[in-house]
Amino acid sequence: MATPPIRRIHVSDMRLAVHSAHARAAAGAGARRLTDRIPGFRALSTFLVALAINLRLAVDDDYGNDDDDDMEVTPTAGLPADIPPLTTYVVESSDDKVEALRLIADSVAQQRQLASRILIFHPSLLSGYILLVALVSHFLFRTAGDLPLLVTTIAGLTMAALLSIRWAVHGYLLMAEEMTFAWLRPRPSPVAADRRGGGHHDDAEDTILATRFGEQIVGALVIRLLSDGDGDGDGGGDDAHGRGPKASKKRKGAPSRTAVFRAWTVRLRYRHKGVGGHLLEEGVRLARERLGADARIRWASDHVHSRRILPVFFNTPFDRREQLAQKMLDDVLRTPE
User: Which one of 87, 142, 143, 157 has the largest count of C-beta atoms within 10 Å of its C-beta?
Assistant: First the structure.
């Protein structure tokens, strides 16, 4: 019977094995010393090891057991069962109208924060403040004993600047106070006064479309529905007042029907989650249902967020917001139903 070959072990292999064993032992000792020296590192390493074991068990359960093939997996698995529904509806009750108007008023007042940040961080005003502080420091600071006087003077200048900014943006609070039931009613129109037969009457209110999540309204859209002879309803647009080439075509053709969006807002914590876009879609659908598929839909020229309090060279962020709103409405109008 043939004898199996004997594997030769070289000295270098033995040295390598011994060296590897010593290296692993040294690494383990170093790791133990590291976990002892760094607070919380032992708990972190234990957590990572436990996580790796759980993940490995989860993979084994998913691919190794055939008993779970008939298990029903739902998209809402692991979510709370008491999530309130998100509904969009036309506001009818007075309480809901008050809540929607309060939400719109809050959004108008919140423009103070953006206006304040614009004034604080505008390059021209910020450089002027820094120059003023430098001049004050140059004339007041001579010795170490002048430091308290310098600090109090700079603090006073800073407080005066902040109070000036607060006074400059105070107008947004006054605008927010205008959000009452009277704001929902159109101003008397001479044309509509002569034609009491149809369209918007002077005592008609705008339509409020609201999105409710649970117990509170999280979004609101105010729509003014106009038909021929009602005027523009917001003071903008030559064609709606009967001037210009577009108006002459409308007088000769079919009556013009226009839906004007006067206010659009979402509660602060629910923004950038699709609530506003859904409101616009529902507003466009509602306008086409009531005025027809060929109705014109646009923003009001004097919508609640269009008024500017600051000088024109400070209004670039507000203009960007308005352009974004216009783009979103255009995208909704181009989307087929």
Answer: 157
pLDDT attached to residue 11: 40
User: pTM of whole model > 0.70?
Assistant: no
Both tokens of residue 126? Answer: 């910020």
What CA–CA distance (Å, rounded) separates 222 from 302? 13
Q: Please check whether residue 210 is in contact with residue 193, taking contact to mean a CB–CB distance below 8 angstroms.
A: no
For the chain, state the CA radius of gyration.
Answer: 34
CA dist list (Å): 301 to 39, 82, 234, 279, 319: 62, 42, 6, 19, 13
The SS3 of residue 193 is helix
Integer Cα distance of 247 and 264 in angstroms: 28
List Cβ neighbours of 104 (8 Å cut-off, separation of 6 or more): 179, 220, 222, 263, 265, 304
Spatial strand order in the sheet of 258-266? 86-90, 207-213, 216-226, 258-266, 296-299
In residues, how long is the chain?
A: 337
> Which tokens hold the place of 211?
């999105």
The strand pairing partners of 222, in sequence order, are: 208, 263
Which tokens go with 159? 């407080």
d(CA 27, CA 49): 17
Residue 84 CB neighbours (<10 A): 10
Q: How far apart are CA 209 and CA 184, in angstroms?
A: 13
Place of tokens 């120059």: 131
- Per-10-residue mean pLDDT for the chain, 337 residues long? 49 43 50 51 56 52 44 48 85 95 96 95 94 93 90 95 95 94 77 47 78 94 81 45 40 68 95 93 94 93 93 93 95 85
Q: How far apart are alpha carbons 220 and 212 in whole angstroms? A: 9
266, β-bridge pairs:
219
Residue 32 confidence (pLDDT): 54
Beta carbons within 10 angstroms of residue 86's beta carbon: 16
| pLDDT of 64 | 44
CA 145 vs. chain centroid, Å, equals 50
Interaxial angle between packed helices 316-334 and 275-291, expressed in degrees from 0 to 180 and rounded to the nearest 10: 60
